[in-house]
Amino acid sequence: MTTLLTLVVLALVAIAIWQMTKIFELSQLKAENSQIANDSDNKTNGYLLFAFLIFIYGITIFSFWNYGKYLLPEAASEHGSDYDSLMLVSMVIIFIVQTLTQALLHYFGYKYRGVKGRKALFFADNDRLEFIWTIIPVIVLAGLILWGLYTWTNIMDVNDEDDPIVVELYAQQFNWTARYAGDDNVLGKANVRMIDINKANVLGLDESDTYAADDIIVKELHLPVGRKVNFKMRSQDVLHSAYMPHFRAQMNCVPGMITEFSFTPIYTTEEMRQNPDVAAKVKRTNEIRAERAAKGEDNSDPWEFDYVLLCNKICGKSHYNMQMKIIVETQEEYDAWIAEQKTFGQNMGQADAGSANDFGKLETATASH
Ligand SMILES: [Cu+2]
After folding, report:
1. What number of CA atoms fall less than 13 Å from residue 34's CA on the CB side?
2. If you measure from the C-alpha of residue 321 to the centroid of ligand 1, how many angstroms do you get, rounded to a whole number?
């Protein structure tokens, strides 16, 4: 609110100054009172062009310096570095071209400013010039597009090679649930119409499907490092988007269909915490949190880095908080964790024995994320 008021005041002050200059100008008895720009007006505008050029260069350097630290750290998936190099090369090319063309544009604006008696040189076309400024972008863009298509095809190629683990990511307003395919590595059939809250069948698994019995439903995603994961996404209600920024992965979750994404994590959570960029970010955040703690404010507990699965589609009022923790660990740690989890079949068996308890369990599961 204070910011808004400050902005309004600043705008009003600017308008007041502008009006006062106008009054001041009107009160001056000028020898030449023409609306047509004269040499000195043109010169002023020429210098203003330079001032604007310095402004845009300045703000670019300022942004790099100040906000560069908010970029994502090194990619934690196998395909991530391909994605990052494509992004980096595209940005570097755009940046160089932008820097040069802005300088030329403003310099020529100044150099050929209006001068009394000067006539503009005019020619209808120049084949060589047009050839140059067509062929260079064609080559550069064709190169970027072909490289982009090649990278895209590689990243989006979801196949069963290299023995991937199959994991379902289930989106609903406003939380995520993960389902492992179990020992058979095949996900059982599921449909929102088969959701049965009384039996804790939260994902609508088909109880008669033999593949479903060993499926494991969890609220925290554990992945073994170096093993390919094939994700199958579903949504219960509206469009969501499974976004795992550290793995450079994102896929929409669409009600009524299954979408897919596949990647191989290459750093464990522990290893990623040692990454200098991640460590610096944790340090910065915890400094802010320590300040908050000193003032007795909320959100002041020390923070530790974890991979996250976020929702990247504005799906409703609590969209901002729709996330699930991802833990990448060694194969042994993963095996130990998955062995502790109950299968869908075990949970259903229990539900048949005494259904009252399982409803409570579901509630804790949903609230724990
Ligand atoms: Cu969402």
Report:
1. 7
2. 9
Measure 131 CA to ligand 1 centroid, in angstroms: 48
The mean pLDDT of the chain is 87
**Residue 364 Cα, ligand 1 centroid: separation in angstroms?**
20
- Structure pTM? 0.77
The sign of the dihedral angle between the CA atoms of 300, 303, 309, 314 is positive
CB count in 10 Å sphere of residue 244: 24
Could you tell me the distance, in angstroms and rounded to a whole number, from the CA of residue 318 to the centre of ligand 1? 8
d(CA 169, CA 292): 35
Find the 253 Cα to ligand 1 centroid distance in Å. 9
Buried b (16+ CB within 10 A) or exposed e, 228-240: bbbbbbbbbebeb
Distance 172 CA to ligand 1 centre (A): 7
Kindly report which listed range (105-114, 139-148, 263-272, 346-355) carries the lowest average pLDDT score.
Answer: 346-355
